[in-house]
Amino acid sequence: MKESNGEVKFLPGNIVVAEAAVAAGCNFFGGYPITPSSEIAAHMAALLPRRGGHFIQMEDEIAAMGSVIGASLAGAKALTATSGPGFSLKLENLGFGYMVEAPCVIVNVMRGGPSTGLPTHPAQADVMQARWGTHGDHPTIAITPAFHQETYMETIRAFNLSEQLRMPVILLLDEVLGHLSEGVRPPKPGTFEIINRKMTDQPPDKYLPYDTSFGDVPPFVPYFEPGYHWHTTGLNHDETGFPTTNPELVTRDEERLMRKVTGNRDLIDKVEYYMADDADVGIFSFGSTARAAMVAVKHAREQGIKAGLFRPVTLWPFPNKQLKDFAEQLKGIVVAEFNLGQMVYEVERTVQSTIPVIRRTKVGGVPITPAEILESVKEIS
Amino acid sequence: MHFEARFSAVGGQGIILAGTILADSAILEGKYAAGSPTYTAQVRGGPTKVDVIVDSEQILFPRTQEINFFLSLATNSYKMFCKGLADNAVVLVDPHLVDVPEGDKEKYQIFEVPVIELTAEHLGRLVYTSAVCLGTMIALTDVVKEETVREALKRRAPRGTEMYNMKALDVGINYVRDILKADVKV
Fold it and tell me: Which ranges of chain A does DSSP label H, i.e. alpha helix?
């Protein structure tokens, strides 16, 4: 808790997200409540109207995501929060958000099971869905904090990235973190950076909504700004915003959308290491499971095993380069994730059979314990 | 130090609040705290619990593994949530509301406090039950200091109820010390 000098508050993770969103300048929430994310909506409903913002509960998750994109295009900093079943419904409009380049933040507090699954129990099984759930080639930024202080700061960073790159950003929590209360020290306003989308300096007659002559992120004008008119469509479009099927223009534009992420990895990537300097047995883990992994690292060290943790805070884009570098010092790596094996494919793809990759997976609603991860660590040592 | 507590009952948010006040007290003392509530799909009336971990160092794994102090105010919540207790854990039950299984009486240190009856008799309103429970916990554990719990409770208590909440704490503390004459600390 070094980031600030405020008072320590004992808060549930979901409330931390809402508080941090408002601190980041969020002034619109459109949602549809779903366990275990509902406290985010409830708290935003309490916070926003008092601050001149807007809260709306829509008729379903599809409309909720639509409202968020609409609010964003009108200039708002918009947030929605959901869990697996709701996230599935939001995916179509999420793709629309990438296509029209609407900055917004989507929180998925992950719960167990496919379909309605385990509403009040945790899992980390929507991680591939976050990357590939909506159709077509598209960039993805997904962030997986593990501690409430980190959740606070990463929520702010999610808004900043979405504004800076004009794209939706996904914040992946799980039921463990959403409902866990722990101490958080909200930083004082002014002690952290708030980034807002770049606005155009072009007059109405010169403005093109997808003008790339300024770089890969086109400058913005809010909908309904007097004198400015722009067209929004999910169809591939040219710089005017109107549809095109011109192969060159479509290729150029889709490649540009991807480049907003691939060309800004320094800004986006974030990996935390724990006792990793001299480690020869690695653990790859993220979010709440990484906390169990940290205890496993400690216990392994007490038993003379040089274990170390690689914890992506930014899960997507996947930190291939950082993991490849770390793998060079390892004789094996355990992938601990609260699902039946998803991120392990990325780890295997990255280490390319140079070292054994041990899966420590679990479903059923009860989190992976430090002892279970330690068992896998011992398979390598 | 590392301490794990579980408060369980039926339905109400009071027991969750008791856990929150324990966590607030730990944070006021500069310690770390983690609280995880569990609830069923029922809006009211289902078995409820909150787990609170207190540690002098940052809490990494936030779920309980060996519970030192277990409080239960209903037989069904006792049955549902009595798993994961440490050997010799301190278990506090309201004897009018909980039937403790015979085997558990050998495994744990069981203390019977008629919490509801005491609250009704001394406070007149059952809304103070969670504060009476906190009083019994203060008397049976060393996890946080009595004065910090008083401070934390005052901060959470609605205006005008501070005096009754303080009295409720005393009722819990005094019963354990004077009636049970319990000389145990976890």
Answer: 13-23, 38-47, 61-73, 84-100, 127-132, 148-165, 175-179, 247-262, 265-268, 287-302, 320-327, 343-351, 370-380
